[in-house]
Design a protein that fits this description.
mainly alpha, 0% strand, disordered N terminus
Length: 193
C-alpha cells in the first residue's frame, strides 16, 4: 500500500483559495516567547532552568549547556542588579533630604530621586517578577545606603550623628518602600521639621 503524500503548498492554496496559505500564516507565539515579552527577568531564569534540565543524551554535540545557561541567567541578574542599584540610590538620597545640613542641594536631590524612580519604574514594568521581589531587593541595600550616607557626611567634614538622629534604628529600613521610597512625588521633611 502506498504511503499517502502530504499536499504541497500550491495544492493547498488551490483547494482553499480564501484561506491563508501555511507559508504566510502568522506563526503561533510560544509560551516562552510570550514570557520574554512580558517579563525578561523571569524568562532568563526559566530558560536557564530549561537548559540545565535538558537530558544529556538529547543535547546537540558540542553545545555547552552549562555556560549557555549561566550566560542567560546572568542577563537576568543584570536586570536585578540594575534594580538594586537604583533602589540603593533612592534610599541614599532620601536621608540626605531628611538629615543633611546642606539644604541648598534639596532640589537637585529631589530631581535625582525623580529620575531614579522613573528608571526603576521602567525596569519593574519590563520585569514584573522583579517588582514582586522589590522588598527583597531593598532589604539588601538599606544598611549599605546609610553607611554610604554617613561616609559622605564625614568626607564633607560633617558629623553624621546629628544628621541621623531622627533614625530609631540606623541599620533597619527607615522609609516605607511603597508609600515613600518608590512613591512618585514623596519626599521626607527637611531637618528640624
Amino acid at each position: 500500500m502506498p504511503v499517502p503524500r502530504r499536499p504541497g503548498r500550491a495544492e493547498l492554496e488551490m483547494s482553499n483559495p480564501g484561506a491563508c496559505s501555511p507559508a504566510i500564516s502568522e506563526p503561533a507565539i510560544s509560551e516562552a516567547a510570550e514570557l520574554h515579552e512580558r517579563d525578561f527577568h523571569a524568562w532568563t531564569q526559566d530558560q536557564a532552568a530549561r537548559l540545565r534540565a535538558w537530558p544529556e543524551a538529547l543535547r546537540p554535540n558540542a553545545l555547552d549547556i552549562a555556560s549557555l545557561a549561566e550566560e542567560i541567567e546572568s542577563m537576568g541578574r543584570s536586570q536585578r542588579g540594575a534594580a538594586q542599584s537604583l533602589v540603593q540610590q533612592i534610599i541614599l538620597h532620601l536621608p540626605k533630604l531628611r538629615g543633611h545640613p546642606a539644604q541648598e542641594y534639596q532640589r537637585r536631590w529631589q530631581k535625582e530621586i525623580d529620575s531614579l524612580r522613573d528608571q526603576i519604574g521602567v525596569i519593574f514594568e519590563e520585569n514584573p517578577s522583579l517588582r514582586v521581589r522589590r522588598a527583597e531587593i531593598a532589604a539588601t541595600v538599606w544598611a549599605r545606603a546609610l553607611r554610604i550616607f554617613q561616609r559622605d557626611l564625614r568626607r564633607d567634614g560633617l558629623d553624621p550623628r546629628p544628621a541621623l538622629a531622627w533614625l530609631a534604628e540606623p541599620e533597619e529600613a527607615c522609609f516605607d518602600l511603597d508609600a515613600e521610597v518608590l512613591a512618585e512625588d514623596w519626599f521626607p521633611p527637611p531637618p528640624g521639621a
